[in-house]
Amino acid sequence: MQTETNTVLLRREVMVRLIKSFLSGNLEKAADDLPFDMRPKNADAPFRCCIHSERAVLRERAIAALGCSVEDDDDKTPLSEYARRALTREKPDDTVLTVVESACHGCAAGRIYVTDLCQGCVARPCTTACAFGAISVQNGRSSIDATKCKACTKCMQVCPYGAIAKIKVPCEDSCPVGAIAKNDAGHAQINSARCLSCGACLAHCPFGAVAEKSQMIDILRAIKSDKKVVAMVAPAVAGQMAAGINKIASALIKAGFDRVADVGVGADITTANETVDFAERMKRGDKFMTTSCCAAYREMVKKNMPEIAPFMSETGTPMHYTAELVKKADPDCVTVFVGPCVAKRREGFGDENVDFVMDFEEMAALFEAAGIDPAQCDEYDFGTETSKQARNFAVTGGVAESVRVAAGGKLDIRPTCINGLNPKSVREMAMWAKKGECPLGNIVEVMVCEGGCVGGAGCFANQKTAARGVANYAAKGADVKTVETE
After folding, report:
1. How far from chain centre, in Å, is Cα 297?
2. Is it true that domain 111-167 has CATH number 3.90.180.10?
3. Choosing a second label site near 437 at 20 to 30 A (CA), which of 137, 261, 468, 484?
């Protein structure tokens, strides 16, 4: 989940400046000036050792905001060249995240260690709790052998003095599949073969060293073209601003989009198809099914846990079904999904009906740059109705609940949720796949982000506030229609 930290504010300021420059027609010149405009001569360096270091970080942030990889930068290429590439490329690069190396702190390696609080007690519960023989007592104090320690933290849990601590590397600690680690230079490096594009590392790094490769310039170019551009807005946006989803949609029209589609329509299609899928699986004897609407979860199955693929629903996501409808109505239009999830950008590359993806944070930057206040906009009429359950997809438990309601009491549905993917839940799911059953229920909703999509790395509102906003919006809808499963 994103909050208004300095890293978020800096990232937004870079994006706002670039959008303003595009709108005024001087992106290339303004890109070169950006680090110097944000940190002019004799200005203070509030976060780094000097103004030159801050300019280097801002330069790399701008490269990412222009949709380019910082890893490919040679330090000599001017930002105007990256702006030119953004203005002329046929399509965005298909990698989602990039590391702003100049911002990376090169944190100390994560480990479990014994602090000076250790009293060398007689009970020595830490030694008995460790199943790997990593803890011994030396000179009256506990000592951990790093070569044997598996970082299970059981010793931390049983120490009566709280004398054992863990050094965390925020980006590495937040990744559920170990896709980010240090390179030979001690800086963060993303293993794209394992990465889920969930954005957890982006959200948790306190130095802002991980960034999205934005598609904002591509989207603005599409808006400026003679093609119709349709924004497909996820219902989760209802919790991002007090203005509400209908006024936010009007604000998008004011920003240049020709039409706005409610992705809740696609969510209702997902519900119907997933209910049928679940019924068929139970009929043939499957013990459980996992839901499929989380893009990062789908990436995890493909890259890290293929053994659970047979238990994953084959149903498409709300984004997919909405884009399909929009393209069917107007094959030549440009579709832009607007949502809370970094991983949706990865999903978009694999969906022929999705042209671009913009997250909520980028949407807010667009409004700020264009001087648009959603609260002052009219109520937009989507021309469609969506169910209460479709509107609630963004909150943990919402997807499984939609299937339960759509089944109309005709199916034995025992839902359970994984509220935020982590190494422990990954191991549990691997065990379920091996055994062919889940002891917790028969429909498993997997939310990679804790709290659901409202906790996504592309959000900017407080998670609890966002969840309340979604709940209030959902309460205004009617229950999803019962699906025939016989």
Report:
1. 11
2. no
3. 484
